[in-house]
Inverse folding.
């Protein structure tokens, strides 16, 4: 039976890049108007590595919110080789940090200050395990000998397995998974301490999208889009009803000059349209009954925060996706699916 409207509990975005300054002010309204909370990624320049920096960044986000907004930014700490376990503990206990993010050094945008080896961060991970603070992982091997399309699978076999074995009670979110191997890895875990976010682009597109008729920088993100077999596995995982998978857009704005360049930045700005994109996928998979769990319940349960009050309602009215948003200095940020039409409108 086709339904004309769908109401779900207000969702959260468990993986979001908001940037800073004019870019923050331009992109924040899209997320704040739809989501109750978001996990805000710390890969600013310089990265958010201290309690003081997280509190200041959270204040800049709050200052950029519309007056009546109830949106809650949940801050993260960017782990470096020399991160002090005391800072992690203090930040988590005072509510400044909701989680910490592990970027293998060099794996992605602004990851150059990241962790060079798990051994270097042993004290931090032990502390996080003790206090129940989630570790969010960009799961890609940085070994230059590993093919770019194989980096996630390689990371699972090496670093992730090592972390999970050494810290058997550490809560881990494998961020923006892109492969069948990652979906299976998370699905197989029975402890409940391992989860994964999945982006709309990895559910909707395979790697062909980056090369259709020419090179298409607006489909380039990290981890890079993979083969069709992986997209199908991610769709099965996301729509399975499993509590281990939840919504994390990885909306990552870059201006069009930075994207459409000889060395274009990785990142897809999906915040304005991600919810309708996810919903379209769930409907195509005949899994509308699992959509609310993925969007509004699983993440909150994993992070141990209450489910949101309030709801959002979708209507079966086609939405044509706005092409871009403008920055005050004339730069533009192109939206994921610009110019396309999706079957649902968010009321
Ligand atoms: C992100 C960004 O631009 O900050 N880019 C991306 O392609 N996803 C970084 C990240 O999450 O890897
Ligand atoms: Zn990201």
């Amino acid at each position: 039976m086709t339904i004309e409207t769908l109401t779900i509990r207000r969702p959260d975005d468990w993986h979001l890049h908001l940037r800073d300054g004019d870019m923050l002010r331009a992109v924040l309204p899209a997320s704040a108007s739809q989501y109750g909370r978001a996990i805000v990624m710390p890969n600013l320049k310089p990265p958010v590595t201290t309690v003081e920096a997280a509190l200041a960044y959270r204040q800049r986000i709050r200052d950029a919110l519309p007056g009546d907004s109830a949106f809650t930014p949940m801050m993260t700490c960017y782990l470096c080789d020399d991160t002090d376990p005391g800072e992690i503990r203090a930040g988590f206990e005072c509510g400044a940090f909701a989680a910490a993010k592990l970027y293998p050094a060099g794996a992605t945008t602004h990851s150059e200050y990241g962790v060079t080896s798990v051994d270097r961060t042993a004290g931090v991970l032990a502390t996080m395990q003790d206090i129940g603070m989630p570790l969010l992982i960009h799961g890609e091997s940085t070994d230059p000998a590993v093919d770019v399309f194989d980096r996630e699978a390689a990371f699972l076999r090496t670093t992730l397995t090592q972390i999970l074995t050494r810290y058997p009670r550490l809560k881990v979110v494998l961020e923006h998974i892109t492969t069948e191997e990652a979906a299976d890895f998370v699905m197989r875990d029975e402890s409940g301490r391992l989860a994964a976010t999945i982006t709309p682009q990895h559910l909707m597109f395979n790697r062909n999208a980056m090369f259709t008729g020419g090179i298409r920088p607006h489909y380039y993100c990290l981890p890079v889009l993979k083969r069709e077999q992986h997209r199908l596995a991610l769709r099965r995982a996301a729509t399975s009803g499993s509590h281990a998978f939840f919504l994390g857009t990885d909306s990552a704005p870059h201006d069009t000059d930075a994207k459409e360049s000889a060395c274009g930045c990785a990142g897809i700005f999906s915040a304005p349209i991600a919810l309708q994109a996810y919903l379209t996928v769930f409907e195509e998979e005949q899994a509308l009954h699992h959509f609310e769990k993925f969007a509004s319940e699983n993440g909150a349960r994993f992070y141990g925060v209450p489910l949101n009050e309030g709801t959002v309602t979708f209507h079966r009215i086609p939405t044509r996706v706005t092409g871009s948003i403008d920055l005050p200095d004339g730069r533009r940020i192109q939206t994921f699916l610009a110019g396309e039409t999706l079957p649902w409108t968010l009321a």
User: Anything to note?
Assistant: The first strand starts at residue 5 and ends at 9.
